[in-house]
TrEMBL record:
Polar residues bias locations: 25-44
InterPro entries, alphabetized: Bact_solute-bd_prot1
Region spans: Disordered: 25-46
Signal peptide start-end: 1-22
Gene3D superfamilies on file: Periplasmic binding protein-like II
Keywords: Signal
Protein name: ABC transporter substrate-binding protein
PROSITE patterns: PROKAR_LIPOPROTEIN
Highest taxon of source: Bacteria
C-alpha cells in the first residue's frame, strides 16, 4: 500500500501561553518552560528569563525580502533587543552573508576548523546531512524532553516531522515547521465563464477538457490553463502552476519517492502511470490548452495569464485568491473566480502533491554550554506565534514596523497606511526567518471562518481582517476559506515525498545527469518531439545509469531515519 499523507489534527492548547502570561498579572511575561527545575540552579530558566544573561551565537543570511528601518540590521534590531531584554539571551552573529553564499561560507568554516556557532539554522538538505555527519552538532532528544514546553512537544509529536534530522534512530536537530497544506493545489476557475457557457464545474479530467475546449478562441483561452514546467529540480511539481494533480489522477506523483508498489521507496517518475500523465499533457499541448512555451514560464509568473484575463484556469495554493482579488477582479470587476477540487482521473483516482511542513532545522553545537537557552527561545516564540489576548504582540511585532493604528483607531497592516510607506516583516529577524506556529493552526482557522465562526484570538483576528469586510458577510464565498475547505476535504489525497535527506553517495555523481535526462525526455514528449513510448526508454536508462543503486541508498536512508 502506498503511503498517503496522514496528518492528525493537533488541538492547539493555550494553557501554557495563558499560564506563562498570567505570572504576576503581566501578560507580556515570556513563556513558561517545559519541565520544572530547581529555581535556585537553573539561572531563571523556569521563570522565563535568565538572571545572568546567556550568550547564544549563530550565523545568518539575508536577501532582498529583508527590510530594515531606523538603522537596524539583522544583528541589532527590535527582535534581538527584545530577546535580550525579555529572555536574558544575548544573540551574537559570527557572520552574516547573502543567501547564495551561505552554504559556501558554512563549508569553509567546517573545513578550516573555525569555531561553529552554538545554533545554526539550515534549509539545504545536503548541508544539513553534512553538518550532522560532521559530529559537531549534538543529539537533541534528551534536551528536547527536558526543556521543551508541553505545547511545543504536542506540536512535534509526529515522528515523521523528525525524519530529516534523524540518523540511526537518533535526532540531531529541531525541525523548523511551516504551515501544513500551504502549497497544496486546488483548481481555480473563472466561475463567470462557466455560468455564461452553462458548463458544470469539472470533476474529472475529461470534464475539464470540455471546459478548456470551450475556452479556446475566447478571451480566457490564451491559453485556457496557466501552468509552468520550469524548475531545475521538480518541473512537474510546483508551488504554483502545478501539474502534480494531473499525474495524481493516475495514482502517482513524479519526482516523489514513495511506496508506490509495496514497502520499498521507489522514484515516482519511473512509474508506468507517469506515462499516462505525460500522454494527457502532450494531448493538452497539441490542442492548445496550455502555453506553447510552458517549459520556459517562470513558476512565480505562472499565473500571469490568469491575472491578466487571458487564461480561465490555474492550479495552485489557497493564497492564489490574491491573484484573483488583487489583480484580475480589480482590473476586470465583472469577473468571478472560484476554487474547485483537483479533478479525478479515468479510474476515479485523485492525487496531489503534499506540501512538507519541514523547512529546515536548528542544530545545536556539542560545545554549547547552555542548550536550554535555545529551548527558552523556542518555547517563547511559539507563544508569540499565537499570542493570547492582552499579549504585547496581539496586534503585531511593533507599531510602525508591521502594523499602524490609523486616525480612527483601527489597526492596519497595509503598507500604504504607514507614514514612511515601509512595512517591515519582523519575523525575518527570527532565527529561522519565519514565524513559529503550529502547522495545523492556519487551515483550522480558515475552516472555522468558512463555517461561519468569528475570530476569538489575536491570531484569528489578523487572519480574519486580511479579508475585505464586504466579502466576510458571506463566509462560504470567501475564496481563501473556500480553498481551505477543499484542501482539508481532500487531505487524504495528498501524497508525500518520503525522501527528505541530502544526496546519497551515488546521487552525488549521477543525479544531475539523471535529472537532465528526465526533464529533457518529459518535455520532448509533452512538446510532441518524441513519441510517448520514449518514456519506456527513459525508464530503462534511468535504472541502468545509477537509478537502481540510488533506490537502494534512498531506502537505506529511509530505514536509518526511522521510516516505516
Amino acid at each position: 500500500m502506498r503511503k498517503w499523507m496522514k496528518l492528525n489534527t493537533l488541538v492547539l492548547a493555550c494553557t501554557l501561553a495563558l499560564t506563562a502570561c498570567s505570572s504576576g498579572g503581566n501578560s507580556n511575561t515570556p513563556a513558561d518552560t517545559g519541565n520544572a527545575q530547581d529555581p535556585a540552579s537553573d539561572n531563571g530558566f523556569s521563570k522565563g528569563k535568565f538572571e545572568t544573561p546567556v550568550t547564544m551565537t549563530t550565523v545568518s543570511s539575508v536577501n532582498s525580502t529583508f527590510k530594515f528601518k531606523n538603522g537596524e540590521t539583522i544583528e541589532n534590531n527590535i527582535h534581538s533587543r527584545w530577546v535580550k531584554e525579555r529572555l536574558g539571551i544575548d544573540l551574537k552573529y559570527n557572520w552574516v552573508t547573502s543567501d547564495d553564499q551561505f552554504k559556501t561560507k558554512v563549508r569553509l568554516d567546517m573545513s578550516s576548523g573555525q569555531k561553529m556557532p552554538d545554533i545554526i539554522f539550515v534549509t539545504d538538505p545536503q548541508l544539513l546531512t553534512d553538518l550532522v555527519d560532521s559530529g559537531m552538532y549534538k543529539e537533541v532528544s534528551e534536551d528536547f524532553e527536558k526543556y521543551a514546553s508541553p505545547e511545543v512537544k504536542k506540536i512535534y509529536e509526529d515522528p515523521q516531522l523528525w525524519a530529516q534530522v534523524t540518523k540511526d534512530g537518533r535526532r540531531y536537530g529541531i525541525p523548523q515547521l511551516t504551515v501544513a497544506y500551504n502549497n497544496d493545489p486546488v483548481l481555480w476557475v473563472r466561475e463567470d465563464f462557466l455560468k455564461e457557457k452553462n458548463l458544470p464545474e469539472p470533476k474529472t479530467l475529461d470534464e475539464l477538457e470540455k471546459v478548456m475546449e470551450a475556452m479556446k478562441g475566447t478571451q480566457v483561452g490564451n491559453p485556457p490553463l496557466a501552468l509552468s514546467f520550469k524548475d531545475a529540480g521538480m518541473p512537474f511539481v510546483q508551488w504554483r502552476g502545478d501539474t502534480s494533480w494531473v499525474f495524481g489522477a493516475y495514482g502517482v506523483i513524479p519526482h516523489y519517492w514513495n511506496k508506490w508498489n509495496g514497502e520499498q521507496l521507489e522514484y515516482g517518475s519511473i512509474q508506468p502511470q507517469v506515462k499516462d500523465g505525460l500522454a494527457r499533457l502532450a494531448d493538452w499541448y497539441k490542442k492548445g490548452y496550455i502555453s506553447a512555451d510552458v517549459g520556459m514560464v517562470e513558476v512565480s509568473k505562472s499565473d500571469d495569464t490568469y491575472k491578466t484575463n487571458k487564461s480561465g484556469l490555474m492550479a495552485g495554493p489557497y493564497f492564489q485568491a490574491n491573484s484573483a482579488r488583487n489583480f484580475l477582479q480589480r482590473n476586470f470587476p465583472e469577473t468571478k473566480t472560484k476554487p474547485l477540487p483537483v479533478p479525478a482521473g479515468p479510474d476515479g483516482k485523485i492525487g496531489r502533491r503534499y506540501s512538507p511542513v519541514q523547512t529546515g532545522a536548528f542544530l545545536i553545537s556539542k560545545d554549547f554550554k547552555n542548550p536550554e537557552a535555545f529551548f527558552l527561545y523556542l518555547n517563547t516564540m511559539y507563544v508569540v506565534g499565537n499570542p493570547p489576548k492582552g499579549h504585547e504582540f496581539e496586534k503585531g511585532w511593533k507599531e510602525g514596523y508591521d502594523y499602524v493604528t490609523k486616525a480612527d483607531g483601527t489597526v492596519s497592516y497595509v503598507e500604504a497606511d504607514f507614514p514612511d510607506k515601509l512595512k517591515v516583516n519582523a519575523t525575518k529577524y527570527f532565527i529561522g526567518h519565519q514565524p513559529f506556529v503550529d502547522p495545523q493552526m492556519l487551515f483550522n482557522t480558515l475552516l472555522k471562518f468558512y463555517n461561519g465562526e468569528k475570530p476569538s484570538t489575536p491570531y484569528e483576528d489578523m487572519m480574519y481582517n486580511n479579508i475585505p469586510v464586504e466579502e466576510r458577510a458571506n463566509p462560504k464565498s470567501v475564496m481563501e476559506w473556500q480553498a481551505a475547505k477543499i484542501v482539508m476535504d481532500q487531505k487524504d489525497k495528498a501524497i508525500q515525498n518520503l525522501f527528505l535527506g541530502g544526496q546519497t553517495e551515488t546521487m552525488k555523481s549521477k543525479w544531475e545527469a539523471l535529472l537532465k535526462l528526465e526533464t529533457e525526455t518529459f518535455l520532448k514528449i509533452v512538446y510532441g518531439k518524441a513519441p510517448i513510448d520514449e518514456f519506456d526508454n527513459f525508464v530503462k536508462s534511468w535504472k541502468s545509469l545509477g537509478g537502481d543503486k540510488i533506490t537502494e541508498e534512498v531506502n537505506e536512508w529511509y530505514k536509518a531515519s526511522g521510516g516505516k
